[in-house]
Amino acid sequence: MDQLTLDVPNVTTFGPGVFRLLPRLRRLRMLSAIQSLDEEEFELCPDLREVLFHAKLQKIRPGTFRHNKALSYLDLVGNNLTHLPDGLIAGNPLLETLSLTENGIRTISAGAFRNASNLQQLILSRNNLRTLEEGVLDDAELLTYFHASANEITSLPPAIFAKTMLLIEIDLHLNNLTSLPKDIFAHTTNLKELRLGDNQLKFLEPELFRHNQRLITLELSGNALETIHGDVFSGLQSLQYLYLADNRLATVPAEVFKPIAGLLQLFLSGNLLQELPGDALAGCSQLESFFVNNNQLKSLPGRLFTNNTKLSSVSLEDNSLRGVPVELFTGTPSLKQMWLGRNPWDCTSCEVAAMSAWLTSHDIDIGDVVPQCSGPGPQPGRDIRQVTSTHCLKDSGQ
């Protein structure tokens, strides 16, 4: 037998030598209530390659899998581990994937991943980690995916990724990070996806991502960013998706998005923005979606979308807009969706009348929330698409 699947949720212990009769075992999948494994448990299973062991393990000894030199996949998700000891996988030179999600891991020895020369995926999400030791990843030079989301990590060593230069994806969202060392990503030049959302970041170092020229997705939503430096995104010429929603940004520098020429989607929802620079999006000629809903915008510059000919979706919902310049829509031939609801539209304004005409003539999808007129005038609650130039009493600037 080379494969064994056991679904025995009530089994709490193994009989002695239970796996000694399976010398050809290559794949083991087990769901049980086992709390511990003997160090010699898999001694006579030299060909064991894949282990999925969902149980109630309280601890894992460094030598548990030392006889299984062929082991390439180890899944210990959903156990009760609290500590990863030194030399945990030192005897498994072919191990490629180690998944430890949903344990109670609080600490990891600096040498836990020693000799992890072939490790490519390390998943530590949904544990209780507060920190990572300097050098803990140094032996994992082939690591491409590092996930440590949903922990309690407050800080990271400056050189934590210094040796993992092949990393493609780093996921650290849902932690308690308050800052990031200046050169923490200096060596991760192959990085394509970086998730730092739902932390407590208040500030980002200038040119923090300057070495990450292949980065495609940058997630920074749900932090406490109040300001961002004008060159914080320098070097990100491959970036396509930028998430800055649900921060505390009151302004954005006019030049901050200019280095991101290939940007496709920009999320600024849920901030404190009252205005946007007229050329804020001038460098983003490939932009397709722009979300700036749930802010405090009172006006928009007429030239905001001048260079965004591929723009197809814009969300302006939940702001304080009473009108927008007529020229805002010039040069947006691809625009199909524009969400405008929950703004105090002044339907006596010629700007709103012009916008109404444009919305209906271009058959724009306005979403589920109908934009309505507010006061003054006799039209509160009226769908702004019903407003015509005959209702226009004044220009917005008068």
Q: Find the count of extended strands (DSSP E, 2+ residues).
A: 19
The DSSP helix count reads 1
SSE class: mainly beta
Q: Determine the fraction of residues in helical runs and give it as a percent range.
A: under 10%
Main-sheet strand order equals 1-2-3-4-6-8-9-10-11-12-13-14-15-16-17
CATH class of the largest domain: Alpha Beta
Mean pLDDT figure? 94
Number of domains: 2
Strand percentage, roughly?
A: 15-25%
Order of helices and strands: EEEEEEEEEEEEEEEEEEHE
Shape: elongated
Report Rg: 27 Å
Which residues sit in consecutive blocks of at least 5 with pLDDT less than 50?
none
CATH architecture annotation of the largest domain? Alpha-Beta Horseshoe
State the distance separating the first and last CA atoms: 85 Å
| Sheet with the most strands, sense and barrel status | 15 strands, parallel
CATH superfamily of the largest domain: Ribonuclease Inhibitor
Could you please say which CATH topology of the largest domain applies here? Leucine-rich repeat, LRR (right-handed beta-alpha superhelix)
Write the layout of secondary structure elements.
Elements (H helix, E strand, L loop, with lengths): L2 E6 L18 E6 L17 E5 L18 E3 L7 E2 L12 E3 L7 E2 L12 E3 L21 E3 L21 E3 L21 E3 L21 E3 L21 E3 L21 E3 L21 E3 L21 E3 L21 E3 L5 E2 L3 H12 L11 E2 L24
Parallel strand pairs: 1-2, 2-3, 3-4, 4-6, 5-7, 6-8, 8-9, 9-10, 10-11, 11-12, 12-13, 13-14, 14-15, 15-16, 16-17, 18-19
Q: Could you explain the architecture of this structure?
A:
The structure is a single chain. By secondary structure, the protein is mainly beta. It folds into two domains: 200 residues, Ribonuclease Inhibitor (Leucine-rich repeat, LRR (right-handed beta-alpha superhelix), Alpha-Beta Horseshoe); 178 residues, Leucine-rich repeat, LRR (right-handed beta-alpha superhelix) (Alpha-Beta Horseshoe). The chain has one helix and 19 strands. The strands form three sheets. Strands 1-2-3-4-6-8-9-10-11-12-13-14-15-16-17 form a 15-stranded parallel sheet, with no helix packed on it. The protein has a two-stranded parallel sheet with strand order 5-7. Strands 18-19 form a two-stranded parallel ribbon. Helix 1 links the parallel strand 18 and strand 19. The chain is elongated and about 90 Å long. The termini are far apart.
